[in-house]
Amino acid sequence: MSKKSVWLTVATMSTMALALTACSGGDPEPAPTPSPVVVAPTIDPSKVPAPTPSIAPPTWPLTGVEGKPVNRAALAVKIENTNQARPQTGLNEADVVWETIVEFQVSRYIAVYHSHVPKEVGPIRSVRPTDPIALAPTHGLLAFSGGQRGILPLVAKAGLQPLSNDAGTPGMYRTHDRAAPHNVYGDPATFWKSANAKHQDSPGEQFLFAGSADESAAVAGGKAASKLSFHLSAASNPSWTWDADAKKWNRSEGSTPATARDGKRLVAVNVVSIVAPHVDSGFNAQGGAPVPVYKLVGSGKGVIATGGKSIAVTWKKAATDKPLRLFLPDGKPALLAPGNTWVELVPKEDGSLTVSS
Q: What are the pLDDT digits (tens) for 329-343?
């Protein structure tokens, strides 16, 4: 037998042997299927679901009071404050009232409206150089009876829309129960209808507000104050007395309670004292009397009175079109309580504030 035949015989026998072995042993048992293993997730107890962020309710920008703000421009109105003009109409509805000293030591108001629409305001008087400086950040409307040629351009230059009775602005009229020039009154709803396309939107925040009176700067960190006595000029010495029941400051002209024409006391939630240089503007009134202006761009001392307490602050205004802001001694913003605010502009040269506890 050849070698080739021998190898074929051996290979054939090996193959047959394997086949017989497979047949004699039967099919091998399949491997058992492993039971499914359920593993509980490992939870780090320090990791909890992120809290749902709270959304602060909307507030009116000039008062910080919760509500549904209407998109309309801030409306400022020049209001007279003489014996012939008192009692005035519409001051308690203003969000902010600025008290300024004009020529002849006389006090006048800049009443700024946004959250309320009074039916009537007045008596309305003429514009002064301080008005555009105080109001420019609102980019709103300024209603007045008239003004000097040199002062009138300052209004538009500050980004405000002028509404002048002398120019025939709708909504102004003269009443018959007072003598001129103390009898110009106006309808704010009509004033707002005169707003042009550039003056339709609400103002930004001018002062900064806490969420509640208790969180305001004066209440949280101030000292007790029962009365604020101002000396603004020889003819203007207003005071504010804290009314704990009403939680408001009550205004007086000297020792006489100040009231609105409807008989209600003039009140404020916040009274802010701003000490600023009070200088000659270069404009003249009747008889050549100098018309003063407050230098409000810069910084100076001030006081906030809220909730029967007061606290010293620093005021800063970076530019005419920037809001006047208030700061605590540590540099943090000084927050007001939600509500209306009266700003007393105290002449740095000869004005004063006395706080009684």
A: 999 999 999 999 999
